[in-house]
Sequence to fold (583 residues):
Amino acid sequence: MALELLKERWSNAVNTVTIGATKEEGGTRTSIVKAGGETCLPFMLNEGGMPHKPVLAMEIFDIAPQDWPDILKEPFKDVYEDPAKWAKRCVDEHKAELLCLRLQGTHSDFGNRSADETAKVVKSVLDAVGVPLIILGTGDEEKDNIVLAKTSEVAKGERCLLGDATEKNYKTLTASCLADGHNIIGESPIDINIAKQVNILISDMGLGSERIVINPTIGALGYGMEYAYSIMERARLAALNGDKMLSMPFICFIGQEAWRAKEAKGPESEHREWGPESKRGPMWEFITAVSMLQAGADILIMRHPKALEETRKYINNLLGA
Amino acid sequence: MLVIGELINGMYKAAGNAIKKREKSVIQKLAKDQVTAGAGVLDVNTGPASIEPKSDMKWLVETIQEVLDIPLALDSTKADVIEEGLKVVKRKAFINSINADDDKLNTLIPIAKKYKAQLIGLAMDKRGIPRDRIQRSELALKIVSSCIEKEFPIEDLYIDPVVLPVNVAQAQGVEVLESIREFKLLCDPPPKTVVGLSNISQGTKKRSLINRTFLVMAASCGLSAAILDPLDSELMDALITAELLLNQHIYCDSYLDAYRKK
Fold:
């Protein structure tokens, strides 16, 4: 008799978040992205479905990247002074289906750019590419509340994904998303209880739970990845078992975390036995991405084109696409 | 835990009058309020005073289904009254209830199969209420065996160990709690368990407190479902908190709200 594998039966699905709005929907995007919707644990396709492929977004900044190693700057060195050109490079050459614009230049340490000036940058990126946008502040609560409110207005109707809202600072951003038709990222510091609380706080203000994305915050390979993994796994199990306040898709900042690791960016001259960083760095980012995919990541924010390409192949292989 | 709202019962004054006068709005409000408060199933009982229980049952089911899409527990001692409800339900219903008497088992299990309904089986028979956990398990096993024999799916069977008022039969509380644990050992997959909670406090002066204390104790024994008053918000809060402490929900500061958003 053939061995029959036991299958889990889940009662609930992960929410599907739609990012981007086309002309017909009141925006100007030429494509949109849907994330989430799983009815099974990651890639357990015999138990349910993954109606939307995990989405790979490329990360760009409103100013030249400040702390990137040369190996990471290399593919963008001729465009990163101009966010619109940088955005176009990601879409045209690296086939990014979603972009993540981080408004680093608004931070007091990096130029303290005003909300109005920043709005122009956002507009220029929206004009340059047709893919949907994720737009992030810098984490400086006071400044973010001013900058992101203005950004939200400028991008009104584009159904962007704005972030991050936290347990202590969610009201202003939620109000902007409600007023201007955007989605929101709720951030929690590798803490499932706070993740759930942030989602409740946001949805209590009237923003539908299908417009919230969880940023569980992650660590790269070697830097606490396993904590993030188990938090995400636990949240996803709860979601599939019916917990509506944890049923949101995950966004993971893969590139940001992977390239913090000295194992990724440390030059070969200092670590001869590690081999060339041109291979090692993208590999570190790729491995971090693969691990987070297995934990349930729905939107992955990537930095190096090679890591992006390999992760895309990996997803297609697993989904048989 | 599955919460079965108990308030649509002709035994209660509000529902009884509404049934008699065919006041749809009263029944519909009772139904909606219970669902909002957390009921996943609504018990429907025409009450002992009903002269036309069959037509009352049909009217109740249709009245509720006009405003809600929710499973109903058709509560009657008479098979024909239950069947009248089964003919019109839109969702998988509960038959509330059968017991371990042969005539009940032989009539109602085939009806449950025919309508693909779930069954609540009381661990009692013609001889009356069981006196301890051993008798309860014997009676439960008789129901389980009969279901297996008649090829009724055990996943759809809920056994009720029969709760008695604490001021009448104080020693029975612990027997009921132990039975909830023991019923799970009767077969694999095990039958589910259910209690008619309010009975525990019948005739006492602290009904709500006794109800919620017993419910929490039963939850920790692994009770699957309870027929109760979901509008007792302290009772519901205690249940949600018990499930939290049993690691069935993920904690957050607003866990009571979170549960209610389900």
